[in-house]
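Tutorial handout. Part one gives the primary structure; part two gives the three-dimensional structure as tokens.
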Amino acid sequence: MTVFEKMVLDKKFLFFGGKGGVGKTTMAASTAAWLAENGHSTLIVATDPTVSLSVIYDQKISEIDITPIKMVKNLCGLNINPKVAAGYFQSKLEGMVANFVTFFGNEVISTPCAEEMAAFDQFVTFLNDRQFEHVVFDTAPTGHTLRELSMPFDWSGYMANQIKNKKELSALMDGAVKDDVLIDSLNKEKARYDNAVKALSDNSLSAFILVLLPERLPIEETARAFENLAQFNIKVKALIINEVIPTDVLKGNWFLERRRATQDNYLKEIEVRFSGISRREVPLLETDAYGMENLRKVARILYEQ
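Part two.
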């Protein structure tokens, strides 16, 4: 069993992150398909609001409901769309504060960050999953993902503190809802968020895998991601270096030889800067990677070689 194979089989939650355009969706989708085809019930969740997941599996994947992937038994998918999620999240908040909306004001649910918070709330839901053996997250580009992980609002704590600090709440609520009932509800929400944060940093449950290209900007963004993730006590378990030009296709082509020489320099730099981290190189393919045959090809490179 390869190091990469053991890593993905051992973890409940698998996160694929990195700079935009480096192949995160391809690696996440290949991994999810590989797990499912090896008999493991698997959910892939895209937190980047694009159509990539639907395109790569060649079918419509819902933004609301978990969708079975037709071509792969044991595999389901979901595209988290912050705009759609925001509607659900707003309804949820309105339900929780319906009896004292005047007290809190509309700013609680109209913050400019509402869409990001809504997406994070859905993200948290799947970090509390009990249905699937594996949940694979195809995350947004690194900066957006880090914002999700460092979301400044702890909604339950914020509202609970407001309740505790405002004596006039009872008068505003006119006795319709007791403080202790509401606080209990909010504390349950807080516990859900706390469990999610714990899962993110639990090495026995989660693995964060960064995808990069052998180029300057992706390397620097990867190094910054290492530092930022460490602030949340999240350790990067592995690197996937994508689009490495195979040496057997050079055949005296000066352009490809030049590009490969540049890549070789960066590959050496990656080895030095990220020493001790498991790495896997994925070659530049002769075609774009979508559809099950290409995903299987990538999966074999990642987990069976």
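Part three, for discussion. Confidence is low (pLDDT under 50) at residues 96-104. The first strand starts at residue 13 and ends at 17.
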